[in-house]
Amino acid sequence: MKKWLPIALVVIFAAWILASLVARPEASFHLREFGKLPALLNGRIQPLDSVARNSLLQIRARQTVLGANDQSIPAIEWLAELTMKPETADTRAVFRIDHPDILALLHLDEKTKYFSFNDLRNGLMLIDEQVRRIREIDSQQRNPFEAAIMRLDNAIRIYQRLKYSLRPPDSADFVKDLAEFQAAIPPAMAVARSQDASEAMNKAPIEKLAGFVDEYQFMDQMAYPLVIPPRLPGESRTAWKNVGASLLDTLRGAPLHPALPDYATLSEAYRRGDAPAFNQTISSYQQWLGGSFSAESSKAQREFFYNDFEAFYKAMLVYVSALLLACLSLAFFPWPGAAESLRRASFGLIVLAWLVHTFGLVFRMMLEGRPPVTNLYSSAIFIGWAAVIFGVALERIFKLGVGNLIGSFAGFVTLVIAHNLALNGDTMEMLRAVLDTNFWLATHVVVVTLGYAATFVAGIVGVVFVVLGVFTDRLDPKMRKSLAGMMYGVVCFATLFSFVGTILGGIWADQSWGRFWGWDPKENGALIIVIWNAIILHARWGGLVRDRGIANMTIFGNIVTSFSWFGVNMLGIGLHSYGFMDQAFKWLVVFIASQVGLIGLGLLPFEYWKSFVQSPVTKVTPKSEAELLDA
Fold first, then answer.
1. Nearest-angstrom CA–CA distance, 27 and 280
2. Residue 65: phi, psi to the nearest 5?
3. Angle subtended at Cα 458 by Cα 467 and Cα 581, rounded to the nearest 5 degrees
4. How far apart are CA 412 and CA 350, in angstroms?
5. Is 547 exposed, middle or buried (0-12, 13-18, 19+ CB in 10 A)?
6. Which of 267, 385, 438, 557 is the most exposed place for a label (fewest CB within 10 A)?
C-alpha cells in the first residue's frame, strides 16, 4: 500500500487530465469551431468562446446554462442561441438575482434565484427607474440593494447587446434582408441625387432603404463584440467593426464585406436547424480568415484551447484531493504505514496539480504576452503557484505531512479566489497605461507578489501550529521545533522579497508618476508587510517571543497581507484602486475574523491545549512541559 497507492492515485488523476485533451466529435452543429472564431472585445482579439464565457460569468456567475431536463448547456451554445435564435435564449434562466428586495420589486418567485429574460421583461422599466436614481449616488455610498440593482442592469445590458452582435433579432431571414438591402441602395441613391422633381417625389426607394438603415444603426450602437475584420490592405489590423457598422459602410460606397454573407448564412442555417450548411460556412470562413488574418485566427484558437482545457479548474480539484489526503495522513499518525502512504500520495498529487497549474500560468502568459501578474485575478493564480512551491519544499525538507497541508490548501484556496475574481468579466483585459510595461511587471510586481505568497505561507504554518496544538496531541517537541523552523525560514524569505519588491515599486512610481513614494494606500500596505515581517524576526532574535508567539504573529501577518492585497483596493482612493471588487468585502471581513479567532485560540493558556494535556512527553518530564510553555 505504501508504494502503490501514491502511484495509482497520480496515474488516475493524470489520465483524467489527459483525457480532456482528446478531441470530442460534434454530432450536429460544430459549435466548438464557431467558438474559435476571432472577435475584438475589451481591446484584444479573443475567440467567441471567451466572449460567451466571460459574458455568462457576469450574468449568471457560471459558465454553463441549464436546459431541458437540467442538461448543462455550454457557454458557446448559449451564445449561438442568443445571437442567432434569441426567442429560444429568452426562455433560458440565466439571470441570477439573490437580493430579496429586487425579487419583491420585480414580483419574482423568491424560491428560486435564476430567471429568464422573459421573466424580467415586464420589470425592465422599474429597473431603469432605479438605475437612474442610483447613478446620482456615489458608488462608495450605495447600499447592497443599490449595488445589486446596478449589477443586474449591467447583466441585462450585456445580454441585450449580445443579441445584436451577429444579426438583427427581429429579422425573419437575414440572408434575404442582406440581398434586399444591397438592392435598395442604388435606386435610393439615384432618387437622392436626381434633379427631376417628379422623380424626387418618389419616396418609396428612400423609405425602403431607411428602414434597413435605422435597424443597422441600432445594431451599430448596441453590438457587443466586433466580429468583422478590417478591410486589408489600407486599414489598421485593429480596425475591427461590428455587423451594423460594417453594413453602414456600404452606404458610403464600400463593397459588402466578405465576412457579412458568411455570418448571415451561419445565423439562418442555425435557425433552420441546417447543420451541414452551418458547418460548411464555418469551415469556409475559417479558411478565408487563414489568409490575411492567420495571426488573429491562430490566437483565437489557442485561447479556445486554454478555455477548454480549464487548467486551473483541474488543478483546483487535484489540490482539494491532495488536501484531503494530507489531513488523513495527519489523522492516521498512530499507524505509520498508512500515514506515510497517504503522505506520499498527497505529495504526488500536489506535484501533479502544480504542473497543471504551471501549464495554465505559462499558457496564459503566452496569450497575453505579459509576465504572470497583471491584475488581481492573475495575482491570485501566481500567489497560489508560489505558495505550492513553498509547501513542496517544506515537505521535502521535513517530511511531516505539514508541507503537503500547506501546499494543497494554498493552491486550492487561491484558485477559488481567482475563480470568484473572474466573475467580473474578462481577466485578460488591456492594461492601464501606467501598468503597460513588461519590465516592471516582471520585476516589481512579481517580486512583491512572491513576498505576499511567502507571508501567507508563514501564516498558514502558524495556523497549523495552533490547530495541532489546541485540537490534537500532535504538537510534541519534535513537531513544534519543525514548525518553528518553517515559520522562521519562510518569514526570512518573505521579508527579503517584500522589501525588494517595495523598493522596485518606488523606482517604477518615480518613472511613472514622478515621485518615489506618495503614501498611497497600496504603497502603505506593502510597507506594512515589510515592517511586520521585520518585527517578527526582531521579536524572535530578541527572545521576546518563542514558538507560540511567532505562530500568532505570522497569523496576524495573514491579516496584514490580505488587507494590502485586497483591502486597499476597496478604499476606492489612491493610484492603485483599479482592481476594486465590492462583493469581496464580505469575504475579506470573514477571513480577518477567522484569523482573529485563531489568534485567540493561540493565546489560550496551555492547559486548554490538547497537545499539552495529553502529550505523553509532557506527562513524563517537567522539562518538556517547560519547553512547551513558551512566551
1. 14
2. -125, 145
3. 95
4. 10
5. buried
6. 438
**Residue 22 pairs with which residues in a beta bridge?**
none
Which DSSP category does 172 fall into?
S
From CA 321, how far away is CA 314, in angstroms rounded?
11
- In 68-149 the beta strands, taken as DSSP E runs, fall at 72-74, 95-96, 114-115
Burial of 196 (0-12, 13-18, 19+ CB in 10 A): exposed
Q: Please report, as a single letter, which amino acid is at residue 180.
A: E
Rounded to whole angstroms, the Cα distance separating 429 from 45 reads 10
* Residue found under cell 499558457: 363
The residue type found at 486 is: M
| Cβ neighbours for 94, distance < 8 A, ≥ 6 positions apart | 56, 59, 60, 65, 78, 114, 115, 116, 117, 159
Q: What is the pTM assigned to this prediction?
A: 0.90
Run means of pLDDT, 10 residues per run, the chain, 631 residues: 83 95 84 96 95 95 86 94 96 94 93 94 96 90 91 96 95 94 88 62 80 94 96 82 95 91 96 96 96 94 96 97 93 69 95 98 94 90 96 94 96 94 84 66 90 96 95 89 95 96 90 83 90 96 94 97 81 56 74 96 91 57 45 40
CB 455 within 8 A of CB 561: yes
What is residue 618's predicted lDDT score, i.e. its pLDDT? 45
| Integer Cα distance of 117 and 124 in angstroms | 10
Instruction: For 34-71, list the strands marked E by DSSP.
Output: 38-41, 44-47, 64-66
**Partner residues linked to 262 by β-bridges:** none
What CA–CA distance (Å, rounded) separates 219 from 160? 11
Q: How far apart are CA 124 and CA 108, in angstroms?
A: 13
Fill in the DSSP letter of residue 45.
E
Q: Using CA atoms, how far apart are residues 2 and 459, in angstroms rounded to an integer?
A: 31
- C-alpha 327/C-alpha 401 separation (Å) is 8
Paired residues of 289 in beta bridges:
none
- As given in the structure block, the three cell numbers for residue 618 are 509532557
- Please tell me the predicted confidence (pLDDT) of residue 617: 46
Q: How many residues does the chain have?
A: 631
Cα separation, 346 vs 387, whole angstroms? 16
The radius of gyration of the chain from alpha carbons, rounded to an integer in Å, stands at 29
3-class DSSP assignment, residue 575:
coil
- How far is 389 from 397, CA to CA, in rounded Å? 12
Sign of CA dihedral 220, 225, 228, 232: positive
* SS percent in the chain: helix, strand, coil, step 5: 70, 5, 25
What is the per-residue burial (b if ≥16 Cβ within 10 Å, else e) of 261-294? bbbbbbbbbbbeebeeebbebbeebbeebeeebe
Q: What are the helix (H) ranges across 194-242?
A: 197-200, 204-222
**Straight-line distance from the first to the last Cα atom of the chain, in angstroms, rounded to the nearest whole number:** 42
Show Cβ contacts of residue 298 under 8 Å, excluding neighbours closer than 6 positions: none
DSSP alpha helices (H): ranges in 474-546? 477-513, 521-541
d(CA 105, CA 461): 48
